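Bug report (template v2)

What were you trying to do?
Predict the complex of my protein with pyridoxal-5'-phosphate.

What happened?
Run completed; filing so the output is reviewed.

Input:
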Amino acid sequence: MSAPADDLDLAALAGGHLTPVLGRYFERSWSHGVGHRLYDTGGRAYLDFANGIAVTALGHAHPAVSAAIHAQVDRLIGPTGAIGYSEPVVRLVDRIAATLPDPIDTVFLLNSGSEAIDGAMKLARRVTGRPAIIAFQGAFHGRTYGATSLTSSSPNYRRGYEPLVPSIYLAPFPQVWREFDGDEARATEVSLSRLRTMLESVVPAETVAAIFIEPVLGEGGYLPAPAAFLRGLRDLCDEHGILLVADEVQTGYGRTGRMWGFEHAGIVPDVVTIAKAIANGLPLSAIAARRELHERWGRGAHGSTYGGNPVACAAALAVLDTIEGQGLVANAAARGAELTAGLGRLKAEDERIGDIRGPGLMIGVEFVSNRETKAPDGALVDRLVARSADLGLLVLSCGPQHQVVRWIAPLDVSAAEVAEALEIFGEALRTA
Ligand SMILES: Cc1ncc(COP(=O)(O)O)c(C=O)c1O
């Protein structure tokens, strides 16, 4: 697609009517996207390693996804799930179930990650008859009231909203690098022990419906949960009849070099929440769990007007065809290893990089003003993100002080694009 001739300032065009509430990483005006390039309204191309925050995981205007959307738009946009069955919906739930381990075989479709989290909270309470839910400090699960109540990655996400949903308890997340100097075993042991103490003294285990965890903390700073910690959680949940909910909204769909983040730990959660990459940009999300849990949740216990829209489901089928047909989970693992190695070379020459972590193409690079004290340097990261964009590369930040540059390359990124991104980021490091 050719770039438009005029350099539109869309912020000015909005005439002050666009809400100031929405945060933005870039004050730039976007025109269109092709493959892994996003174009601004001046016609300038940017290598897009942000992907709308891990959403357009196959890049922009992907031919197979666009074709599927066009075909479905001309055939059937509605009706919603409450009216009856439609083919893309029925085929998609089958395909999603096939990507998940036994016994997870049943899928409820919604529109956003937050809705999937709220639905999973309701499922957990209804099915167990218990009120309490545990999430982790620093986690991000979304913006609806339920999801906000589980979220603590930034005080701004909670401030002024209390009372939040009651009976939510936040446990310490194993901060392997910051608190335990990279010792995963110790981080696991201490964090599980803190959780057990919480179950003994703060919230009795028999009142807990579910534990929600992101296998890699996303917004909170791209912090992988140690595999042994996830296995410990699984054991704890089994011991006390608690449902383990894996929030795979960001980690899912191959992002970590496995289809699902929990696979790295060899565990099977009870419930999986899915969104973001699922339809490469169209609104769609899912709650997956074994059939028995859905049956106990009960017919009519939850619903959605738009959830499982046939057009979004058609896009999602094309996404799965592409991921599976092109071996993109393996590509995420291979390109992720190259990216991590390249970032490691930059770290060797730059004292400001404190830590590089994360599986596959979910890589966090944490910046510090002092390697000894690990004092976070969010101001530097803000400059690096801005400078990288000026140089033609889009990367994002995360972490409580936005001190982490997060790398969310498309799943079908090439080795040449990884090299190009590293070159640009190296230049940003020298000049930011
Ligand atoms: C792990 C995780 N869960 C839930 C959400 C909420 O998803 P949504 O913004 O689609 O509501 C997000 C969004 O960033 C996320 O990263």
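What did the reviewer find?
The chain has two domains: 10-62+328-431, 65-325. Residues 328-348 form the longest helix (21 residues).
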